[in-house]
Design goal:
Strand order of the largest sheet: 1-4-5-6-7-8-9-10
Radius of gyration: 21 Å
Number of helices: 13
Number of strands: 11
Structural class: alpha/beta
Order of helices and strands: HHHHEEEHEHEHHEHEHEHEHEHE
Shape: globular
Distance between the termini: 7 Å
Largest sheet: 8 strands, parallel, barrel
Helix content: 25-40%
Bound molecules: beta-D-mannopyranose
Length: about 400
């Protein structure tokens, strides 16, 4: 059996050799051949170890496709070699462009697509043609397929509207929304019809020859805060768990077998807060969290401290529960710190066994709302250094994610 880490191993060796020995290579070609050969042999030899993943893998859905199961295994094996880089809405739009084909701000800066593309299905529940950030769902489907065919991963969140008030996901004026969509609630049937729309979309994620595309579904995220209607102040822990289980059970019982499930609270200081509303190992495949620095001058230091705090307990929790872990959302808005990638982000995440880190979107519809660089942006050269680190995996580094 091949594995993502196998390919990553070879690729990262090549990346490192290109990066570290660039000047030497041009001078002594023979040494290059020997060095690269040795690195390749080392890569192949170490793949046996990289293949070792926990045997006790608690699965959230027994009927999932073989490729989805392989994805889970490869996400768990990933940190033995490095971590994937992800970007929200990467190929749909960027700073100064919208809807171009085969374009990506990340690719324009470093030459490769991110290994992980994030998408959001907010407004699919309304039957709209476009999502809440104005991307046509048809385009999201096409870009998910393209990312899969390139060998990369797709993750999907859902900023769905408030089913009780008709407001958006941030409409928290009325409590009891979660309760209203659980069985027996006034909006239960309406919510099931929304889940049906989600089901249809997930089932439509297929290649031309009918192969179902695995996706990491990150539902009901940032629920330890109270800015979404499913947040902490607006439902009890039990209601939240019931919401999660109802969503999972609806999708699986309606034949959605191409999903892995990510649990993705905000960045809480204690593991007790993190786990308080955890629905259970049967319903979750990956443990993540969302973490953003504040814009205050001390924001960077606070960010590093918080990232270390969460990643320390998450590393332990992941091992105990046999789950992959990830930084499911992060980033510095507008990237004013030129060396943020190598001096802030990389040193903090490099210490922990994460499968991926994803930065938020490069908005086409808001000024200075971007989290990845674009050509000419002040952090772009530093992002190339981050890309050149052997441990950062971009799309070309992860060819065997589904095998
Ligand atoms: C937020 C912002 C919003 C966006 C929402 C959903 O963080 O980026 O502009 O609508 O995410 O993608």
């Amino acid at each position: 059996m091949t594995c993502a880490t196998h390919y990553c191993d070879l690729r990262s060796s090549l990346k490192k050799s290109r990066y570290d020995f660039k000047i030497m290579i041009s001078m002594v070609g023979k040494i290059r051949n020997i060095a690269v050969g040795a690195l390749l042999i080392a890569g192949i030899a170490s793949c046996g170890a990289a293949n070792k993943i926990p045997s006790k893998v608690a699965k959230s859905s027994p009927k999932r496709t073989v490729e989805t199961q392989n994805l889970l295994k490869n996400l768990q094996g990933m940190p033995s070699k490095g971590f994937m880089f992800g970007h929200q809405d990467d190929t749909a739009y960027g700073v100064g462009w919208n809807g171009d084909l085969n374009r990506s701000d990340v690719k324009s800066v470093c030459g490769d697509y991110p290994a992980v593309c994030g998408w959001d299905l907010g407004h699919i529940e309304l039957g709209d043609e476009k999502n809440l950030d104005k991307i046509p769902f048809d385009r999201i489907r096409k870009d998910i397929i393209a990312q899969y065919l390139r060998g990369g991963l797709n993750t999907v969140s859902w900023h769905l509207n408030n089913p009780l008030t008709g407001g958006d996901a941030w409409d928290v004026k009325t409590d009891g929304v979660v309760k209203s969509i659980l069985p027996g609630g006034a909006k239960h049937e309406l919510f099931l019809s929304w889940l049906n729309k989600l089901t249809v979309f997930f089932k439509s994620l297929k290649t031309a020859d009918g192969k179902s595309i695995p996706v990491l579904f990150r539902s009901w995220h940032e629920h330890t805060g109270s800015w979404f209607w499913w947040g902490k102040s607006h439902c009890t822990p039990q209601e939240y768990k019931d919401l999660w289980k109802m969503t999972h059970d609806y999708l699986t019982s309606h034949g959605v077998n191409n999903l892995l499930y990510a649990y993705s609270p905000g960045s809480e200081k204690t593991v007790d807060e993190y786990i308080e509303r955890y629905p259970g190992d049967k319903y979750v495949d990956l443990l993540g969290f969302d973490c953003y620095p504040s814009v205050k001058p001390e924001g960077t230091e606070e960010y590093k401290t918080l990232m270390n705090t969460v990643l320390t307990y998450l590393t332990k929790l992941g091992k105990e529960h046999h789950k992959a872990i990830a930084v499911t959302e992060t980033g510095l808005e507008a990237l004013p710190i030129a060396n943020w990638w190598t001096d802030v982000l990389f040193p903090v995440i490099d210490k922990y066994p994460i499968s991926y880190v994803l930065v938020w979107r490069n908005a086409h519809d808001k000024q200075n709302h971007f989290y990845a660089p674009y050509p000419g942006q002040v952090s772009a050269p530093n992002f190339v250094e981050f890309y050149n680190q052997p441990k950062t995996f971009f799309c070309k580094d992860v060819k065997n994610l589904y095998k």
